[in-house]
Design goal:
By secondary structure, the chain is an all-alpha fold. The protein has nine helices and no strands. The chain has two domains: about 1-50, no CATH class; about 75-175, no CATH class.
Amino acid sequence: MRRLAVLGVAAVAVGLVALFDRGVVLGVDLRVVNVVGVLAVVAGIRYALAARATDRRRADVEPPEPRHRSAVLGDEVETALRATDRDGVARRAELRRRLRGVAVDVLVAHGGYDRAAAEAAVDDGTWTDDPVAAGYLAEPTSLPPRMRVRNLLRRRSTVRRCVERALTAVEEVRGR
């Protein structure tokens, strides 16, 4: 094997020199070129057979440990937004209920409220400066009349707009 490697390196070297100096090739007999070509083919076949005979083993890797999923405030709202198996009215009511719960949780965690004060703040709409978010999550719902009229003229859903504004207001409380 070592002799073949030396012969291969020598053949490549002669080929590289021949690229720059044509006189080297003119001095080489055609039989030598044929012998080098046959040796190259034999070396290639030998390499292919050796690679074919090599036993390839795969590594046995154990499955990874399952990840622990942490609770994220608002995760249930995302789930409710994706839920499509219920009718529209029930789905919107469930979404509003869950969003109210998230707002209360965020006020308790980041707003400095206790649970009762947070629920009262969400009910009367004093938890945010956004009248749409406050009105949507208030009990009972009291959206500003301007917003109702404006949304009648638009194609966007009133509920979607209210949810987006409420989520933005919750994010602002959380960012304080």
